[in-house]
Specification:
The complex is a heterodimer of chains A (133) and B (193). With 133 residues, chain A is mainly beta. Chain A contains one helix and eleven strands; from the N terminus they run ββββαβββββββ. Chain B is globular and about 40 Å long. Classes of the chains: A mainly beta (133), B mainly beta (193).
Chain lengths: 133, 193
């Protein structure tokens, strides 16, 4: 998983119901807000995405560096106390999965052999965690 | 024997987007005290679930809000507090949701891609939805923004479903019965903004 922590200006307000970072992630990226400072109008966000080959849009370190250069970004932070160990996951249902190999951690999906992290029991069906972190 | 039905009262009770219900073994879904509720008994077995959803996929790109709270989040249970689903019961075909599963808060987006069912989940830390919160979803063709009590918590740009969906809530037990009562009191004051 590719991740980057940024200090970013905020727009909107809690009262108006739309307090948010002044940054829109690019396609493929997702964003988690770790902290707001409503008085000084900044927040700490973590932008993340996966470079797994099955991803809708692969996110690279270079992509995260590019978004870090936006004008609303105040600083790039090396870490943050509220940054979760696992920020998110990219997963897929087992409906199209064939040849799941728990030793090599590979699975064939639509004729393509790809890596996975683990299989998780969902409440209805098993799911394949392709990437998490 | 005849039954007298006050049609006006019936119309008032049923919203235009009629609700469907699924009540699994000891997991019940109902409307009471102003809340659409999905609730599991402490005797609920593993892999049992209950839900409420609109029969029609009436909700397209837009901004939607409701009030909700959950009780007793924790291990071996899950609650989808507020979300949209393309075909209820076939989550892989399209989903946007707030969740607490196995005690972990999160949000997700999912849609069908070339016959596969991928999704993205973001973990939310520092949350407590055991008192009533205002949940808001801003859904566009390129992203979904998830708000709680007027502040953005997360944005997704991946696996965004592109056609109208049903509104839903869901409570379920995981493989091991949790042995405690839990559930969602949700969809209060649901509205499109």
């Amino acid at each position: 998983m590719k991740r980057k922590i940024l200090k970013v200006k905020t727009i909107g307000s809690r009262k108006a119901g739309n307090l948010q970072p002044d940054i829109e992630p690019e396609h493929g990226m997702n964003l988690l807000v770790l902290e707001y400072n409503e008085i000084e109008k900044w927040c700490i966000v973590e932008v993340w995405g996966t470079d797994h080959e099955l991803a809708e849009k692969i996110v690279t370190t270079k992509d995260l560096e590019r978004i870090s250069k936006r004008s609303s970004v105040i600083a790039i932070l090396p870490s943050h106390s509220k940054s979760p160990k696992i920020i998110g996951r990219f997963a897929i249902g087992t409906e199209n999965a064939e040849d799941i190999n728990p030793v090599t951690k590979t699975v064939k999906i639509k004729e393509k052999s790809v890596s996975f992290k683990r299989i998780e029991k969902d409440h209805q069906k098993d799911i394949i965690i392709l990437d998490e972190g | 024997m005849s039954i007298n039905i006050d049609k006006q009262k019936l119309r008032d009770a049923l919203p235009l987007w009629t609700i469907g219900t699924r009540s699994g073994d000891m997991v019940l879904s109902y409307f009471a005290d102003g809340y659409y509720t999905s609730r599991a008994s402490s005797a609920a077995p593993g892999n049992s679930y209950g839900s409420l959803w609109t029969i029609g996929a009436l909700f397209d790109f837009g901004t939607y809000q409701c009030k909700a709270y959950i009780s007793a989040p924790g291990a071996n249970r899950g609650m989808h507090v507020f979300g949209f689903e393309y075909h209820h019961g076939w989550a892989g075909e399209g989903l946007i949701w707030f969740q607490n599963t196995a005690g972990v808060y999160g949000v997700g987006t999912r849609t069908q891609v070339d016959g596969t069912y991928p999704y993205t989940i973001t973990t939310l830390g520092g949350e407590d939805w055991t008192t009533e919160k205002t949940f808001k979803i801003e859904w566009t063709s390129g992203s979904v923004k998830f708000y709680v009590d007027g502040v953005l918590k997360a944005t997704h740009t991946t696996y965004i479903h592109q056609t109208p969906m049903c509104l839903y809530i869901e409570t379920f037990t995981l493989a091991t019965p949790p042995g405690v009562e839990f559930g969602i009191w949700s969809l209060k004051e649901f509205q499109e903004l």
